[in-house]
Amino acid sequence: MSFDVAISLDEGTLNRIVAVLYARPGLRNGLFTGSRTATVLSEQVTVGWDVQAVPVVQLVPPTPEQWTAAVKGDGSTAPIPSTNAFLISFPRLSVTRTLPGGTVQQATVPVEAICTVGLRNNQLVLDAEAAVVDLSQAPAFDRAFVYPVLIPEVLNMADSLVSGQQVPALSFGGLTFGDAALAVGGSRLVAVANLQGSPAPDAPDPASLPAGEFYVLLSSSAMTQVAAQGAAGLQGKQGAASGSQGFGIGTASYQASATLTRVSATPTPDLTAVSAQVSVEVSASAGVDVLGTIVNGIVQAGETVGNAFEDAGKAVAHAFSSY
Amino acid sequence: MSDIGISYSATTQPNPLGVRFGLSFDNTTLNAVVQDVDPLIVTLVPSGNVGEQILSGVAWPLAQTLGLILPTTIKGLFTGFSFPVLSVSPAQETVLGETLTVTPSRMSLSSMGDHLMVQASLDVR
């Protein structure tokens, strides 16, 4: 596993998204059913469609047979991107055809959409590219309306069901990644990238990665960068202490400060914790007020002497008053 | 003024100081949070030219007082410090006026070979 970050999303999650969309009454009527009138081989024909079962996302590459039967939205079978492709199946697509005389013909067919996953502006984008419909035995009239009417609608539905916007957004602490490589397979969709400045990684083999609904893998290099940048926020933090304290010969007022200077941090070997080394600088000083202490002593001594005189005077007065 | 100035030269042991961060989730953000800081000793030695009476009567006793106060001050600098490692935000999409929200929940952390693995369940509504 040679990459700095991997993001994996499994098809079970995409299928829950599709199921929630399918269950919405507003979409049931607006997206999964509809009709269109078109001129097909000089005849006015109204084509209706109804998706009668929940579509299913399959994060596996299409088979060669599916590629052969794939038709693009414009009816062409021009080369279709063959990397990072997966399928959305519409197991029961009911198609009705109303002819000018009012005759309604109905058929229920399975249709598959081939989708691709890519990146635009580093955002995950899922696109419906082609529909897989076997029309080899169909009459020319059927082919004539399926290509211009039905296939674009199927692709539109597929585009609406899965998109890159459904993948939770990630932000990494101070990390920037370069170009991503994508891979689809093993029922999951995986994007990998290296840290900015490193060459882009090769597309991974999804089967070599762990299973899981949604996960992110971060390499030791990525964690080292996160740890270094994050712990750097400690640098320059400063604390102070001050106060005063009396001693026998004076009162000391002190000031002290501590500053966190150099900070280095690395993840622990199992990457589930971070260990940091922080240098600390301390400075301290004090001022001693000796004179204040002496003056206070003199004042106290004076008060003691004064009290003694007062006591003596009272004693003399008391002696005279007793005669 | 009657003040007599005392300067101190101070050293901390150990220096650098070891600090450990644990990784924990705050909602859907994985943070590195300071868990513990090495025990430390701050030693202060009076410096400069002060009389013996001040030195023995004030400077050294005060150095002991500061040696008790400063480790707490220093450890306080780490209290509550954290930094984000990874944040996973809900995704929202509107299809034909219907809003769909994919919200990460039940996040967990593990070590997967030489990678850190952050897993989440996704609630779709």
Task: Walk me through what this model shows.
The complex is a heterodimer of chains A (323) and B (125). Chain A is α+β, with helices and mostly antiparallel strands. Chain A has helices at residues 11-23, 25-30, 64-68, 140-161, 220-231, 290-321, and strands at residues 5-10, 33-40, 43-51, 56-58, 70-72, 85-98, 104-120, 123-132, 169-172, 177-185, 188-195, 214-219, 238-247, 250-267, 273-289. Chain A is 28% helix and 44% strand. In chain A, the strands form three sheets. In chain A, strands 2, 3, 4, 5, 6, 7 and 8 form a seven-stranded antiparallel β-sheet that branches. A four-stranded antiparallel β-sheet of chain A has the order 10-11-1-12. In chain A, strand 14 and strand 15 (273-289) form a beta hairpin. The longest helix of chain A is centred in the last third of the chain and has 32 residues, at 290-321. Chain A starts with a strand and ends with a helix. The mean pLDDT of chain B is 93. Chain B starts with a strand and ends with a strand. The radius of gyration of chain B is 26 Å and the shape is rod-shaped. Chain B is α+β, with helices and mostly antiparallel strands. In chain B, the strands form three sheets. Chain B has a three-stranded antiparallel β-sheet with strand order 2-3-5, with no helix packed on it. In chain B, strands 6-7-8 form a three-stranded antiparallel β-sheet, with no helix packed on it. Classes of the chains: A alpha+beta (323), B alpha+beta (125).
